[in-house]
Specification:
By secondary structure, the chain is α/β, with parallel strands linked by helices. The radius of gyration is 17 Å and the shape is globular. The chain has one domain (about 35-150). The mean pLDDT is about 85. About 25% of the residues lie in helices and about 20% in strands.
Length: about 150
């Protein structure tokens, strides 16, 4: 894990002084009990299917990952040079826990697993993500998703 105290001064000042966005809407809402919820994964690992357009830069858009995508078909194009990809290479469930969600659904802990999941580039400026997140909310609603498992990377 990178620590501010280990960074050189230009990096330390840049990270410590990043603005925190403010959103006018309140996202929290109540819903059905967990055992009846349909759950989707939303990751910031810069994941996409092999052959999809890789992430590049700070666009703030996302990639759609169908629920039946195998771990071998997932590629990470996260742009951060400080990100250690070793865990992902050994077990994709560390950053895209689809197998764990399926187990929870099989055990009745959650209602079901969504048909589609999504990944953003975590290094993107949140203000560039707002319109994409609003579009994603419509897709989630269309898939009857009422819970999102946010996996920040």
């Amino acid at each position: 894990m990178a620590r501010l105290s280990d960074m050189n001064e230009p990096q330390r000042s840049h990270i410590a002084n990043l603005p925190c966005p403010h959103f006018d809407k309140t996202p929290w809402t109540t819903g059905p009990e967990l055992s009846r919820r349909r759950v989707a994964i939303i990751s910031t690992a810069g994941l996409h299917r092999r052959g999809d357009r890789p992430f590049g830069g700070m666009d703030g858009d996302y990639r759609v990952i169908p629920g039946d995508t195998s771990a071998n078909d997932l590629v990470m194009t996260h742009i951060s040079t400080n990100f250690d990809r070793t865990g992902f290479q050994q077990d994709a469930n560390l950053i895209f826990p689809i197998d764990r969600l399926r187990e929870l659904a099989d055990e009745g802990v959650i209602g079901s697993v969504a048909d589609f999941h999504y990944s953003f580039m975590g290094a993107a400026d949140p203000s560039n993500m707002a319109s994409h997140a609003e579009n994603l909310a419509l897709l989630l609603s269309g898939d009857n998703v009422d819970a999102a498992f946010l996996v920040p990377v």
